[in-house]
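Hi V.,

Quick status before I head out on leave. The structure for the redesign project is tokenized and pasted below; the design run finished overnight.
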């Protein structure tokens, strides 16, 4: 897996681009069809979901089968990497490349600390805000698309541990010291929320200490052929703009600029968007279609849930 650091014009690190190869299907695989979804981890059902008829929510059943895609982090590692999301991103990338049960498949990805632009618009206390944004319910619950439209909620893939959990107690100390490792999130467009891939206890510790949890978001970006085609179109537009300004300069003289000052920044922005813009999550067809999904529901829930 190739890795490339992304930096802004001012040199600020903005994310780690990943290019995965040799992974035609991920170990943590999303299947979808007819408003129904199935998330499996190495064939084990992890999450069953169905979009409501009014498209206002996704109802889900969460199993206890999910296993974290990253190893536990030592306290000395947390201190060494404190405040360095770029170094954490490389550690996370190494873990994602090594695990057989992660979401990476062939294509381009981005690990970035930059989350959705509208989170916590009211600047509420962290415990209050994050407590509301974390989707509750086990084994069943729902992702509310109506009340939280535009605010991307967090869906833990296993129940959140309580404040008395030993791991949470250890992480609370790190949260107070400002050395808490990031929580790893994965944007799943079919659910219209982030799922928590790693760091459930760290997220609980941040809430208990009322601090904003450090986050790294894993998102799928444009595939290589889309980048090549988009780059060609952007360059053709840029060259056409320069040609248009050149024609104007022939008619009106040097009073007309050469066009590079206005077209150049647009070209740069378009190329950057091609490299980093989020793309919808890939999903594979449900094995057996709707009836296959219903069969998994019956086998997994024992008839206690039917998606309604």
């Amino acid at each position: 897996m190739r890795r490339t650091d992304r930096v802004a014009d001012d040199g600020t690190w903005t994310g780690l681009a990943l290019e995965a190869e040799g992974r035609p299907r991920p170990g943590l695989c999303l299947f979808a069809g007819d408003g129904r979804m199935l998330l499996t981890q190495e064939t084990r059902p992890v999450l069953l979901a169905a979009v409501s008829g009014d498209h206002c929510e996704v109802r889900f059943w969460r199993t206890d089968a999910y296993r974290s895609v990253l190893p536990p982090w030592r306290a000395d590692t947390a201190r060494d990497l404190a405040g360095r999301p770029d170094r954490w991103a490389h550690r996370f990338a190494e873990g994602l490349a090594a695990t057989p049960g992660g979401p990476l498949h062939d294509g381009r990805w981005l690990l970035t600390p930059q989350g959705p632009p509208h989170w916590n618009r009211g600047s509420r206390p962290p415990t209050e805000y994050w407590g509301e944004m974390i989707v509750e319910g086990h084994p069943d619950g729902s992702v509310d698309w109506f009340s939280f439209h535009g605010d991307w909620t967090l869906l833990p893939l296993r129940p959140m541990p309580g404040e008395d959990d030993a791991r949470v107690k250890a992480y609370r100390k790190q949260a107070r010291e400002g050395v808490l490792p990031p929580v790893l999130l994965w944007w799943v467009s079919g659910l219209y929320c982030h799922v928590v891939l790693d760091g459930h206890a760290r997220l609980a510790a941040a809430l208990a200490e009322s601090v904003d949890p450090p986050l790294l978001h894993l998102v799928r970006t444009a595939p290589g052929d889309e980048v090549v085609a988009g780059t060609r179109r952007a360059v053709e537009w840029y060259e056409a703009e320069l040609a248009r300004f050149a024609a104007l300069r022939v008619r009106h003289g040097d009073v007309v600029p050469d066009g590079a000052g206005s077209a150049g920044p647009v070209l740069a922005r378009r190329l950057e968007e091609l490299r980093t813009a989020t793309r919808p999550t890939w999903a594979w067809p449900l094995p057996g279609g709707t009836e296959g999904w219903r069969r998994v529901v019956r086998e997994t829930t024992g008839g206690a849930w039917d998606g309604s």
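Above is the designed sequence. The chain has a mean pLDDT of 92.

G. will cover questions while I'm gone.

Best,
W.
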